[in-house]
Amino acid sequence: MEELLRQAGEKVLWTARRKGVEAEAYLLYNRELSVDVNRGKVETLKEAEEIGLGVRVFNQGRLGFVYSSDLSAQAVAQSVQDAIDISQNTPLDLYNQLPEPVNSYPTLDIYDPQICVTPLENKIELAREAERVARAFDPRIAVVERAGYEEADFNTLIMNSKGLLASAQGNYSTLFISLVAQDEEDSQTGFAVMSKKKFAELDPAALGQEAAHRALRSLGATTSATANLPCIMEPFVTARFLSLLAPSLQGDAVLKGKSMLKDRLGDKIAATAVTLVDDGVLPGGIAAFPFDGEGMPCQRTGLIQDGCLKAFLYDNYSAMKADQVSTGNGQRSSFRSLPSVGITNLVLSPGLKDPADLRIDIKTGILITEVMGMHTANPISGDFSLGASGIMIREGELAEPVRGITIAGNIFTWLKNVQAVGSDLRFYGARAAPSIRMEGISVGGQ
């Protein structure tokens, strides 16, 4: 497969050279498998693969971009010509330049052959096991809506006219389950997901138990009174708030004036307990890769250290415009897209406290276990008003479940109000976070 990708890339550069322009070839082969089971029987089984090419042409500061799933020599040459034609009608921007080649890339363990050689039936059995464990956990588990297994396997190759060459293969696998617990007239949903770079690390029993526990603990939930309460957020919720914060840490947003953190480098923007990193080379990280979507080496970038803003994330274009160096964060969703600034593995560093110790001195507070409507939050101002559910805290102990509540605030105020960080770091895709305790948060209820 790599040889096929390389031949297409070389054709791009050869054609571009003949046409008197610089070019970049981004080539991707991707294979995906997904299986859903219900009551032990396979409901859906899908396997798909695609291969494609993205061509960026740099024509004296003018950019042209074309993609194609046809890697024949004729189609590749035509893609280059089409990109040149497009570039003649795009704005002149002297920051449109190819990345320079690099001497080396980090060596990462990102490909597990076991994912590919394990028989399909064994993978289906993992989903069945998660479902069995969940159903057996408690008779109140009424419905398992979905239990499934997914995997992705991908080859990426990038070449450009300046001599850059980057190639790597990676894969990962995922288990997930969603279910419903029912008790008399009340029903509550539960879910769990687990993504691993190593197939052997998938744990269907733990997954099924977690989903069942999440549903059962919410049975009998009522709403709460409106109040300003001390708050603990579970890792899943904390990780979702990281998604709201991430755009403000991207160099392109800073350059466009769309980040509240503009001109704040070196400032104290969060509580001392907050340390946040973007780690593109994190061992076991789902988004770990030797290079980004432009061929720049991925790295570990400290964004917030002990509450102080230390850095922003850059791709090649935004780095040049800001007179900075690329942090290896030029992300691409596929060969069909241009690179843009994005996170790799965004990790809120854990603290030393056991999660139970975070609440030990709270007289009346709330543990937030789920939030809804994160897409309605404002990524520029950081304002949010979200539906939520959770469990009341009384005299340091978990008490009655609550739902139908609203939590409101601002992500930048939220950062300053973090009092403590738990030791229970959890990974949810490319984001990882522990539990956190905050000062009073506005909770809307009855």
UniProtKB/TrEMBL annotation:
Residues 23-86 form the Metalloprotease TldD/E N-terminal domain. Residues 228-445 form the Metalloprotease TldD/E C-terminal domain. Pfam families: PmbA_TldD_1st (PF01523), PmbA_TldD_2nd (PF19290), PmbA_TldD_3rd (PF19289). It comes from the Bacteria. One of its GO terms (cellular component) is cytosol. Residues 119-219 form the Metalloprotease TldD/E central domain. GO terms for molecular function: metallopeptidase activity. GO terms for biological process: proteolysis. Belongs to the peptidase U62 family. This is TldD/PmbA. It comes from Syntrophomonas zehnderi OL-4.
